[in-house]
Amino acid sequence: MTSVNHALRSARLPLGTTPKGLRNIAKRVHTLTAILRAGVVSTGHEVASEEFFDTLTVKVNRKFGTAKSILAAAELKGCVK
After folding, report:
1. How does pLDDT run across 66-81, given as a tens digit for each residue?
2. What percent of the chain has pLDDT over 70?
3. What is the mean pLDDT of the chain?
4. Does an H or E element contain 59, and which?
5. What CA–CA distances, in Å, run from 29 to 9, 42, 53, 58, 59?
6. Out of 3-7, 13-17, 61-65, 73-77, which region has the weakest mean confidence (pLDDT)?
7. Per-residue exposure over 7-38, b if at least 16 CB sit within 10 Å of its own CB, e if not
8. Contact 52, 32 (CB under 8 A)
9. The model's pTM
């Protein structure tokens, strides 16, 4: 078994997920992350890396407060659990 097959089997994907289905899932995840990135950048923050898939590291613009205060505000609004 190749490492890719092993990773796919251990990822707990729905039964019958095909390679095409996995590509569609990956494209959707990346697209949603790209939309999030665009929103983060448009509000004056900086993204640490130009390359990403499903995770962003955001450099918070200090005029909006600290990362901790922004997270607390998001939690109050129900945006983060």
Report:
1. 999 989 998 999 988 7
2. 83
3. 85
4. strand 58-59
5. 19, 20, 8, 18, 21
6. 3-7
7. eeeeeeeeeeeeeeeeeeeeeeeeeeeeeebe
8. no
9. 0.70
Look up tokens 């450099």; give the residue: 59
The residue assigned the tokens 């955001």 is 58
Nearest to 67 by CA among 9, 56, 3: 56
- What residue spans define the domains of the chain? 3-76
Query: Structure tokens of 2?
Result: 């190749």
Q: What whole-number distance in Å separates Cα of residue 37 and Cα of residue 55?
A: 10
Find, among 35, 33, 32, 58, the residue nearest to 47 by Cα.
58
Cα separation, 27 vs 22, whole angstroms: 9
Q: What is d(CA 63, CA 57) in angstroms, rounded to the nearest whole number?
A: 18
